[in-house]
Design brief:
The chain is mainly β. The chain has strands at 4-7, 24-27, 30-35, 38-42, 45-48, 53-59, 68-70, 75-77, 86-91, 95-97, 102-104, 115-123. The chain has one domain: Deoxyuridine triphosphatase (dUTPase) (Deoxyuridine 5'-Triphosphate Nucleotidohydrolase, Chain A). The radius of gyration is 20 Å and the shape is globular. The chain starts with a strand and ends in a 28-residue tail after the last strand.
């Protein structure tokens, strides 16, 4: 499948280390601290997937060791969005400085040029909704969080 991509400044084409990897690594083009514990990373690319596809941005698994995470946990880009992609990261506080009356955070683990997140082109289908008065009976029914048990 062919997909259009535009590079900005030091932007790099997303890269897969192994042909069978599901996602492409994306790189930091610019890192800006928005406030303590919140960082915005320009990814240096705009992507225009074909009709029926969207861009999905996921965290890299290694971020779980850092105290940082993607602020929205998963980014979604519609195929008609043609702006530059960015990722916003947030940190879990690791302490509190009573003298300064502020939380402390682990340092942001990435620098410009590092692989910071993963991208996948995901296919989607248009949904035609059938509005009904009731849904079919199922074993689970309207049981909510945890209703299926642990084992």
């Amino acid at each position: 499948m062919r997909t259009k991509i535009q590079l900005f400044d030091v932007g790099k084409v997303p890269y897969k280390k192994h042909q069978d990897d599901a996602c492409y690594d994306m790189y930091a083009a610019e890192i800006t601290q928005v406030r303590p514990g919140l960082v915005r990373v320009r990814l240096g690319v705009a992507i225009q997937p074909p009709e029926g596809y969207r861009v999905a941005i996921y965290p890299r698994s290694s971020i779980s060791h850092t105290g940082w995470s993607l602020a929205n946990s998963l980014g979604v880009g519609d195929n008609n969005y043609t702006g530059e992609y960015a990722a916003v990261f947030q940190a879990t506080p690791i302490g509190y400085n009573f003298r300064l009356n502020e939380f402390t955070y682990a340092p942001f683990p990435y620098k410009v040029g590092d692989r910071v997140c993963q991208m996948e082109l995901v296919t989607y289908k248009q949904i035609d909704w059938d509005v009904v008065d009731t849904l079919d009976d199922t074993e689970r029914g309207d049981g909510g969080f945890g209703s299926t048990g642990v084992k």
